[in-house]
Amino acid sequence: ASMTSPAINHRIGETNVCEIRDGQVRMIEADCPDQLCIKQGAFGTDGGMIVCLPNRVVIEPASSPRTDAVS
Fold first, then answer.
1. What is the pLDDT of residues 2-48, one digit of tens each?
2. Close Cβ partners of 61 (under 8 Å, ≥ 6 residues apart)
3. Sheet of 24-30: strands edge to edge?
4. What is the pLDDT of residue 68?
């Protein structure tokens, strides 16, 4: 039998809730009309991203390189 760690739920503002469990993060609640952020599924440290455009929420690994400007 596999052991799973307890889930950590984190509210993001008034609009979204993500769940962190077993090294994976996924969106479990959102008040956006299309629910695409929930349908995107989970990702882990190997890469990925969850985006909820209507609510302006982006979840990505902390180790992701971020480019804010191109010179």
1. 567 888 999 988 999 999 999 999 999 999 999 999 999 999 988 89
2. 43, 44, 45, 47, 48
3. 8-12, 16-21, 24-30
4. 54
C-alpha 18/C-alpha 39 separation (Å) is 12
- Under 8 Å CB-to-CB from 56, ≥6 apart: which residues? none
Q: Where are the alpha helices (H) located in 1-71, listed in sequence order? A: 36-39
pTM: 0.75
How many DSSP H helices and E strands does the chain contain? 1, 5
Q: What does DSSP assign to residue 29?
A: E
